[in-house]
Amino acid sequence: MSDQNETPKIHIDSDWKAQAQAEKEKLTKQTQATAGDAGAGKGAPGEMPPASFESLVSTMAMQALFALGAIPDPRTGQRVQHLDLARHHIDMLTVLEEKTKGNLTPDEEKMLSSTVYELRTRYIQMSSAASGV
């Protein structure tokens, strides 16, 4: 019937999405508090966020999500999968997780481990869909 014409649907884990949003809001509040303490302009256009562990993990996770096709290319609006590149970014986060073990705050450790877990799960889903399994 029409099953052959349907495109695969992407499953979005709403718990992860809610957690990511909460972490983003927490990071925003921390950034604003830090900027206020330092006397810097709050939310000035073009201002770079402060370097932090959360920013590093978020940046790497976004790159993996982009390579998984979960985020469309901002120039074309198209979602393109590069599973080898996605795996590389996930592996880099895994190296970061291993090398920082015992040196992170509980919140940082939880953020990193949940990010790696979610990305691995998405990678498995996408690679299984791509291979037709």
Notes on the structure:
This protein is mainly α and 133 residues long. The chain has a domain at 50-133. Helices cover 63% and strands 0% of the residues. Helix 3 (83-99) packs antiparallel against helix 4 (106-131). The radius of gyration is 17 Å and the shape is globular. It starts with 13 loop residues before the first helix and ends with a helix.
What's a concise summary of this model?
This protein is mostly helical and 133 residues long. Helices cover 63% and strands 0% of the residues.
List low-pLDDT spans: 37-42
User: How would you characterize the largest beta sheet?
Assistant: none
Order of helices and strands: HHHH
Q: How far is it from the N-terminal to the C-terminal residue, by CA?
A: 20 Å
SSE-based structural type: mainly alpha
Radius of gyration: 17 Å
Q: What's the average pLDDT? A: 81
Write the SSE topology.
Blueprint: H1 14-38, H2 53-68, H3 83-99, H4 106-131
Helix pairs in contact: 2-3, 2-4, 3-4
Features:
133 residues; single chain; mainly alpha
